Amino acid sequence: MKVQFLSKNLWKEYYSFISKISVITSLAFLFFEIPVDVKLRCGGIFIVFLIGRFLYIWCRANHLQKISLQINNSTLEIESGDIFSENGFKIIAFNEFFDTQVDDVIISKNTLNGQYITRYYPRSSDLDNIIDSDVHLTECIIGTRERRAGKEKQYKLGTIVKNGEYFLLAFTHFDKDNRAFLGVNDYISCLMNMWDECDILYGGNTVVLPLLGSGITRFRGNENISDQELLEIIIWTFKVSRIRFQYPAKAKIILTENCLHKINLYDVKKRFDS
Predict the structure, then answer these.
(1) Cβ 249 vs Cβ 205: under 8 Å
(2) Which of 61, 45, 68 has its CA nearest to residue 5?
(3) Are 45 and 171 in a shared domain?
(4) What whole-number distance in Å separates Cα of residue 165 and Cα of residue 172?
(5) Which has the least CB within 10 A, 58, 170, 178, 185?
(6) CB neighbours (10 Å) of residue 1?
């Protein structure tokens, strides 16, 4: 069970329900004379009803498949799905070099990054030309690094290359062995910069992103960070960034089915919904 029996949020919702029902029943007993034997039967039925209501709330909380949050007058939706089939600008995470070499060494075929490149750019040089010609990207170079394979220009984390209906995001550092890694401070800084870039580029369209950092990214110093914590950090940075998506535009986080089974959407809804 993702939502435990003693969850504070669960009991808070339940107490709120009881308080409303209590007012109604108190008024009923105040204005109507009810025989004692009827009161006892009604009391038993009422207790069964309250137990059933709690079980319903508990079951519903554990089986949430989708939530919608209102943050800074913007809508942020969270659900499972296929990011490639979503409408709007879809964020695809690259490394800080914007590498495009899908060889299961630099980029794995199984990642969204690898799927995007192999699906739309069977000749990766075509994507390289788009990235290299992006004027904004030239302003975001922070250095160069000699590597055995891959590109050498490093870009600021959070930098976005707009390419059709996709936002290509410089998301992770890469070590000398081509392993993606981040520190939590890097992660937060990257997300804040990403939201700033989205604010400039989204043009009234929905922005869709995966659970950035879930899977193969290594968080140095925080190796045990959970998908739940990653999701909450993304939502928190969205909130403090003050970006506003005007209706009907919105932000949307797409989870894999595996992530959805592990994440407590009920607590997320109670914590962040304004």
Answers:
(1) yes
(2) 61
(3) no
(4) 22
(5) 185
(6) 10
Residue 94 shares a structural domain with residue 177? yes
Same domain, 58 and 97: no
Lookup: tokens for 235: 């939502």
Pair (92, 223) in one structural domain: yes
The four Cα atoms 9, 11, 14, 16 give a dihedral, to 10 degrees, of -70
Q: By the 8 A CB rule, do 205 and 88 touch?
A: yes
**Residues sharing a CB contact under 8 Å with residue 188, sequence separation 6 or more, in sequence order:** 233, 237
The answer to whether residue 155 is domain-embedded is yes
List the helix and strand counts (H, then E) for the chain. 9, 11
| Residue 28 pLDDT grade (very low, low, confident, very high; cuts 50, 70, 90) | low
Which H/E stretch holds residue 114?
A: helix 112-120
Query: Does residue 174 form part of some domain?
Result: yes
The residue with greater pLDDT, 40 or 248, is: 248
**198 shares its domain with 256:** yes
224 residue type, one letter: N
Is residue 13 within 8 A of residue 269, CB to CB? The reply is: no
What is the domain extent for residue 135?
66-272
> How do residues 194-216 score in pLDDT, each as one tens digit?
999 999 999 999 999 999 998 76
Residue 200 has which token pair?
């400039």
| Cα distance between residue 174 and residue 11, in whole Å | 45
179 and 264 assigned to the same domain? yes
